[in-house]
Specification:
Number of helices: 6
CATH architecture: Orthogonal Bundle
Helix content: 40-55%
CATH class: Mainly Alpha
CATH topology: Arc Repressor Mutant, subunit A
């Protein structure tokens, strides 16, 4: 995996504020890759960033990390959907225009 892509993904995740989430697809569109690659980066390199804020398009964290993510969510004020699988994207998704602007600033030092 390209080191620059890894850095772009990790910096995007770091920008998501507490109490907000972003989907794998949102990050993929932001950095120019696919959602599966975003998941791979987080699996391999994401332990030092707020990985619990990255969810599926349905607002669900990975099943094997759900309980841990929900612990962080409780601290950040993210409510769990009635089905118990994740959160409502319509309520908690980060502002995509804002994060695109901030990500451009945060990655200005990286090669294109």
């Amino acid at each position: 995996m390209d080191d620059v892509l890894v850095e772009r993904v990790l910096r995007a995740v770091e920008l998501v504020p507490p109490g907000r989430v972003i989907s794998y697809g949102d990050i993929a569109a932001l950095v120019g890759t696919g959602p599966r690659q975003v998941g791979w980066v987080l699996r391999e390199y994401g332990s030092g960033v707020s990985w619990w804020r990255v969810v599926s398009a349905a607002g669900d964290p990975p099943k094997h990390k759900r309980e841990t993510a929900f612990g962080f969510w409780s601290d950040e004020g993210i409510a769990i959907k009635p089905n118990g699988l994740g959160c409502r994207m319509s309520e908690y998704r980060v502002d995509l225009t804002w994060i695109a602007t901030e990500h451009a600033r945060a990655t200005a030092d990286l090669p294109r």
